[in-house]
Amino acid sequence: MTNNESKQNSLKQLAKIAPIVRGLLAEPTGNQDIPYNPVILKSLTSKEAVDFADSANNAQASEYPSPLNKDLGIPIFPEALDLNNPIEELRKNLSDSIAGYSAQYNSKPQIICLRNLGILFVDPGHNKPELPLKNKVALVTGAAGAIGYGICCGLLEKGCHLAATDLPGKKLDRFTTDLKQMAGDRIIGIPIDVTDEDSVVQGLESVSLVWGGIDIVVVNAGIPLAKFLKDIDLDDFRRLEKVNVEGTFLTLREITRHFILQDTGGDVVIVSTKNVPSPGAGFGAYSATKAASHQLGRIASLELAQYGVRVNMVAPDAVFSEGKYKSGLWEEIGPDRMKARGLDEDGLQEYYQGRNLLKAKITGRHVSNAVLFFATRQTPTTGATIPVDGGLPDATPR
Q: What b/e string do you get for 113-123 counting C-beta neighbours within 10 Å, with b at 16 or more?
């Protein structure tokens, strides 16, 4: 094995351990809706950090690897872990070590040294007022668009650390740079192709290495197609199926595995659409694949409740833009819709606004508010859908 392969293997192992440790360091609250207060758990994997972690004698060192300092307390050096052991055995070994430390020092450790892997340490946090999602880590797929921008802004404003994910490239880079002006180091951009299994796995591992784990996932990645069934090319249908269905499946599968490692519950919100209960002619491929995504969410709500994970859906309609970010869906299908109705872009928006009962313009921030209703756990709810459409009787969930 080359040095690079060995390094990558160590990072994968650390990414597996980090959520377990983060879960064990979370403080129980006694509140059934918000059962734990999490920590932000950062990692150090430099040669200096790995060398430091290899010997418990280094607890007495005069200096710790940067940026650590003695204000974080005495490090803990759990016994060497066999990462081939079952998850529960790994958790028990780490739990026993942390419990022993807590009994001796009357507090949980802030620096965890893992032999051959590196160091995990608790970020003391930002000196800001308490916010409902402080120290929660959220991941949003397909973030770099109108709905994604609204959701990301809402999560950051409520205190989240946020991983904005999308296909790699300048679009994601610019999106992340914009949000950094608002949230600084609480936002990172991580390239994820939700149709690629390795990309999804590696994306979640990257978040674990940066902040220790994930608490909230918003499944927002999706693509449209506006054609009648008789005109749809099979490859085009398969393209939608891969993003809208397989992308949802892979995200749900991998985050479930992550939540089990962390063992502190979690929240998943799937961005569905009014086209699930009320499909439209000429929009069959999108409606069918989003319906499959929605159904996967309902099934996940049944399967994940045992782990304290809630899975819910929001179903928006006609979100054209949020700030300077335009909807990818409407950029693709809007020109044909405008041509068919003899309207310009403003006229098309007015048309869709006029068809809902409230005559409301639906924005990315409205979708964000629905996501935050679930993410902040306002009610003990799972498997539910909030319409964000201004009132469309045909689209009311049945």
A: bbeebbbbbbb
